[in-house]
Amino acid sequence: MITFSFLGEDVSSLSNSNQATNSLSGNGTGQSPISWFIFGLMASVTFVGILSELMPSGILPQMTAGLGVEQTQVGFLVGIYALASAIFAIPLISMTLWINRKILLLALLTGFAVSNIVVGMTSSYYLIVAMRILGGICAGIMWPMIAAYGTALVPENMHGRAITIIMAGNTFGVSLGLPVMTFIGTQVGWRMSFIVLGLLGAAIALLAIKFLPSVEGEKLTQSNSPIAVLKIPGVWIVLALTFLAVVAHYSTYTYITLLVETLEFVGGISLALLIFGIGSVISVILSARVIDTHLRGLIVSMLACGLIAMGLFVFFRGTNGVAHIAFLLWGLAFGPLVTMFQTAVSHQVDEAKAVATSVQSSVFNFSIMIATWIAGLILVHMPETGVLGIVYLSILCFIPAVIITFISKKTLDAPTA
């Protein structure tokens, strides 16, 4: 048996991919350890998912010129993806709850591959919108489903770490994948970025067929329905924090290229994304160590980093050095964004974790849509403030989020068991 090391923990490979209830490290429970490779493969799925969502943000000028549309129309492609995810997440998670998790994930990867390849090959803006909706539907099912899929493989006291590893694909997608795809889009062509991403999704699907363990679905009942989940007060606290944090981050991130130009940032968008990415990777590594024991402290710290970063953008603008620190802090805040709140909402329920995370994911994606919509309104109707008006919006969201998190000790403190 081959043993790997992740963040100081032993992670051993499965001798049989069908061993579905396992642990990330030996813990004396008698459960067989699960492999780093399995969780890494799951992380590659979220990597594709986040890149599919954010791709237009990195190549906004190229898509605008290539399609002959306005910048806000390309920004809309991010928003409509998020809207489709938000609308369809809860009903489709409920409808597909009975399906084997592996089979469902393969279907979703096929959807990602097809939607991205078609976007890369068509000149029709309306067909691109349709494919973005398809991709958004797949993402709406994937985000909550894969979190529940992963937690089914580990004991309760390691759910946070399992979600962190799986959702690391989200962080690496933003920090590494998006800069690479942006480079391809600027140097080779924006269409090639989407085609490459579609082919990557197809390759991951082939690996998943062979290596991912099979986990049976579950029957939808009154106790694990979305209505039952929404009766839990703690869930509403997590949903409110999700909304505030997502609007704070994504309103500005959608127009990060304009922010860099407005700040006259030394090094340009490539360096800004690199620094942002480094911060994201650092925070994911750190959060994996503490998320199961200090969840509330982690959330407060990450929200505070985001607030400080936005404050530096406003008060110091593009001052060399300060702006670079701001992008690093913003990356720190952004890294565990998905992980923190999916872990928090999963702690509020004993069962129906897929349904609970689907509700949280739906709010997450609705929040992205709202963030891009409000940001677009600010750019159109407040031209004198420009993109810095969006930064002010972020600050107005970060402040109450920090306060709510700080006072929600009973809800957000991680369980000790």
TrEMBL record:
Keyword Transmembrane helix listed: yes
Keywords associated with the record: Cell membrane, Membrane, Transmembrane, Transmembrane helix
Recorded topology in the membrane: Multi-pass membrane protein
Major facilitator superfamily (MFS) profile domain residues: 37-412
Organism: Psychrobacter coccoides
Transmembrane segments: 34-54, 74-93, 105-127, 133-155, 162-184, 190-212, 233-253, 265-286, 298-316, 322-341, 362-380, 386-407
Name this polypeptide is given: MFS transporter
InterPro entries, A to Z: MFS, MFS_dom, MFS_Efflux_Transporters, MFS_trans_sf
Cellular localisation: Cell membrane
